[in-house]
Structures are given as C-alpha cells and as structure tokens.
Amino acid sequence: MDLKPTVRQILFLYIFISISAIFNMVPNIAAYNAGRSGYMSTIYSGIILCAYAYLLLQILRIYPNMNFYEILSRCLGRPIAKLIMVLYFFWAYFNVFLKTGQFSVTMQATLMPSIHPGILLVIFFLLIIYTLSKNLRTIFRFSEFVYQPIIFFLLILLLFALPSIDYFELVPITEAELLDNLYSVDDILTIAGNLVLFLFFSGTVTASGAHGYVRNRVFHTVLMFTLLTLLCTITSIGINGASTTAGLAFPIFQSVRNISVLNTFERFDSFITLIEMLSDFIYILIFLVVMMKCLFFIFNYENSKIMVTVLFFISCSYILIRNFTQLELTRIYESYGLVINLGFQYIIPVILGVVCLFRKPFSGVVVNESK
Asked: Which tens digit of pLDDT belongs to each residue from 260-273?
C-alpha cells in the first residue's frame, strides 16, 4: 500500500476526522462533568496532547523513514509486531462500527428524520465502497482541499456567535470546578488520540520532510485542535447554559440554529450537519484504510479491499438490523470504547516514545519488514 501522503495531508485529515466528535461530544461531556467551567478541560487536554505529540515525534526522530509496523518489529520482534497489528486491526474495525452507527443516528436526528435508516445506510455503504475502489490518495487530497475553507467557516461562525454568548454562564470558576474538569480529560483525549494514525503513515512522512518541519506542523495541529475544542465548548455553554448543554446530543447544532450574519444569512445548523457528515465519512474511510494497512503488515497482502468491504457490509447490516439509538451507542462507547481507545491510542505509543528518549537515532538501511 504505497499511499505516500504528505505531512500536511495527514495532519489536516487528523483535524478533519475529529470535527464531528468535537461538535457532538466535547461540549456535552465538559458541561456534564464541570458545569460552566467545562471549557477548562479542553486546555488541560491540550497540555497533555502536547506531551503526547512530543513522544510521537521522538519515535519519528529515532526511527526515521519507518512506519508503525517496522518500528515495532525493531523494538519487539516481528511475531509480537504482527500480533499488535492484529489487535490494531480489530481496534480500527470497532471504531468503524461505532462511527457508522453514529453517522446513521446523526442523519436521522438532524437532516433526514423522515427517511428510513436502511435507505441512508445503503447509500452510505455504496458511497464508501465507491471511494475505496478509487485511488486512496484522493482521501488525503480531499482533506487537504477542504480543511482551510471549513476551518475558516467555523472560526467566522463562532465569531458571529459571540454576541449570543451569555458570559455569566461561563464565570465565575471555583477551585472545585477546576478539579471537576479532570473528569472530562479522558474523553477528550480519545478524540485527540487519533494522532496515533500519524505512525501508520510515518514512513513516507519522515522520508519527505525534515524533522524540524514535521515537529512544527504537529504542534501547530495540536494548537488548532485545542483551539477548536475550546471555542466549541465556550459557544455551547455560553449560549445554551451548562445544564442544557449537558443534556444535548448535538450541542453545537442547537447553538448555531439562531445565529444570523448581517440579518441575512442564517440556519447554519444545516452547514454544521454537512461538515459532521463529511467528517464521519472521511473518518470511516481512513479507519478502513488502517485496517487494510494492518492486513498488509500482517500478511503482506496488497489486495485487501474485498475483505475490508465484506467486514464493512457486515457492520452496516448489523447496525440496520439492531437499529441502535443514540443512548445505546453512547453506552457502548462509555462501557468499552473509551478504555479501548485510550489503550490503543496511548499505551503502546507512549511506551515506545519513552523508550526512544533513551536511544540514539537509527541509521541503518530499512528493509521491508512485512514479508
């Protein structure tokens, strides 16, 4: 699988696939755990994310021009590396399943409440399969193309939301509330932790750019992620109030409903939903690509699209038959998804990063470790 994405494309894609969760999860969780001061949890998470990004960069510095599997093979041996890739394969599949269910629920609750979920899932499945059948580099190019317009639109929208914000809903902040914000950090970190995807494509990234350039890009992206989560949380709590935001399934959607620009442009909730749909769409695609890369690492199997397509069809069929609700998907995530994501996003990369702090950069010739 020779995708060869650039540093910009991978990091833009990271922000893009995080947007939907930032809109739907972060304000709700932050307000539920810490009330009006919930936005402080995004700052805590940003600080931890900087440390995490630093450790990832240490891995890339010590093992340049290598992907995740090659790094694991050198550190732990090929059999253990293959076993870890098997686990990451199922982790990616679990996230595809959850996100597909969330996409179906979001579509029904916002844009198309009168359409049967089966029709939506069939159309969605066909779009995903059609995209997978094409050149996969298009996914990265698309994210790079839409990133700046979307971020610009969101920042402008949040700017026009300022007059609607009741600042008394955000202050004062007590010492107890500052401590309560710690309870939201793990949920936000599971969204931020998709930065681990950087390792799956790191071979081409570190081969195409100097370490200093990669470092600057990564920390710029971490800052953008933190800023986006902070602004979305402030907007939701400031407009709806902490108690209302804590009970909303789609807090940003509700926050921007009554915002107008120059008394002419309004109903931005439809644009927000469209952005969420695109974010979920790309999220599922990139995790399907991760599944394909895991199969390549494990079996050196190039043509894995058929197997991944079958597995995706099974997940869509089960979601259609089971007809999950928003509450059921939330319970699955809280019971299993949170711990699973934290484990795969942080434990293995952090251990590798700490080990790399005490190693010299590898300068040997890289061979194809997947055979």
From this structure: 666 556 666 677 87
